Amino acid sequence: MITGIWEEFLDIVRQEAGSRVVETWFRAVQLQRWDALEKTVYLQAPNVFVRNWLASNYTKLIQTHLARLLNVDELKVQVIVSGAKNPKVEAEKGELVTSTTVVATIEKRAVSSVPMLVPSKNNGYLNKQYVFDNFVVGSSNSLAYAAAQAVAERPGAVYNPLFIYGQSGLGKTHLMHAIGNGIKEKHPKAGVLYQTADRFVNEFINAIRFDKIHRFKAKYQNIDVLLIDDVQFISNKDQTQEAFFHIFNTLYELHKQIIFSSDMVPQSMQGIPERLRSRMAWGLVVDIHAPKLETKIAILKRKAHASNEIISDDVAHFIADTVDSNIRELEGALVRVIAFAALTKQSISLSLAQRVLQRTQTEHRQPIDFNKIVAVIKKHFPYTLQHLQSKHRNKGIAHTRHVTMFLMKKYTDKSLRDIGTFLGGRDHSTVMHAYNKIAKAIVNDDVLAQKIKSIERDIVH
Length: 461
Prior knowledge:
Layout: H1 2-17, H2 19-26, E1 30-35, E2 40-45, H3 48-57, H4 59-69, E3 76-81, E4 91-92, E5 95-96, E6 103-106, H5 142-153, E7 162-166, H6 172-186, E8 192-196, H7 197-209, H8 213-221, E9 225-229, H9 238-253, E10 257-262, H10 274-280, E11 284-288, H11 293-306, H12 313-322, H13 327-344, H14 350-363, H15 370-380, H16 385-389, H17 395-411, H18 416-422, H19 428-444, H20 446-460
Parallel strand pairs: 2-3, 7-10, 7-11, 8-9, 9-10
Antiparallel strand pairs: 1-2, 3-6, 4-5
Helix pairs in contact: 1-2, 1-4, 2-13, 5-6, 7-8, 11-12, 11-13, 12-14, 13-14, 15-17, 17-19, 18-19, 19-20
């Protein structure tokens, strides 16, 4: 029964997050047992690195789907490292401690899209593991790093607001937390709040729903440092934008520090009014590019060291040369190699790394279909399949629908009629018009062209 549940869980994760996530993080994990009385699932990870990554990135995913499969409302998950002696959980005041413990307990939280964080007034949702000391600096991120350090040294005095943009998985979030942690270290009493845009929107909605909007505004207007991650996701949310506009003005006038991150420059954000976009660009706008080979090797060396592993220069060079996308993919490749070596009780060698990564690339690539393209689109635009299938002619939805049609025609062998039918029963001429419009636009619009390239990278990986 347990084996069947775990395999069903992997199928769900594969559909929701992709085959790469399954092969990188979950395939090496085992479901050891299920304690129905305590409503606790015990998972076994091959090493500390994998365990910490699961707790940091996939808490909600694990809880949501395993709870449903086991038919329970509340679910506790304990992740145990293989071969550990005397495993135990250490927790202080509800804080999840994963850096020094053998077992990580994932507690169910009502609102938390950032696991391993302590949602308290003192901590401000900051991840204590993300600091400047463990951020690898290279030519691709040196300007962003220097700006982040300057803000941490003199919050509110330089580069206000600071806007960091770049593709997903290149270290924007790491720098955001590093700024917050740096400020808290120098000014322990400062009110520092890290917030994802999604969580900000949800909090605002709940404030309206429960008639607590004054408390919501007071909370944000009384802090000293506000960090908003993935700010592009407040697009097309008019009421939220209005509230945020006033919060921004209040903090800025009081010389409080504001930091944003996004996958695009402020001027390219659709569904956000010009007055708000211009304010985001008032200070310093810096970007982070994909790291070069030398930086990727340095990242791999540091990540391996953090998980008590040693990799040779040739292994690090091979992995860095094989993975050409982002840092998350780079770390994922390293984890696959470390996990395979641990499970098969082999040393980490060049031949082992070649065998693991080449097999993954050839055997586990998810086929490209409509659902995969929509899943990727949702990561880059604030719209669901329901929005794309609707009759809404909102400018943002219409543009996203056109991009989706363009990509479906380019990456699948389905007919124009099939594409139109899938996207709300539209005819083939509508799809062709959308394809031609986007194809023509990317020739003259460099920002859109880069956006399409970023989406395409996610689709083919």
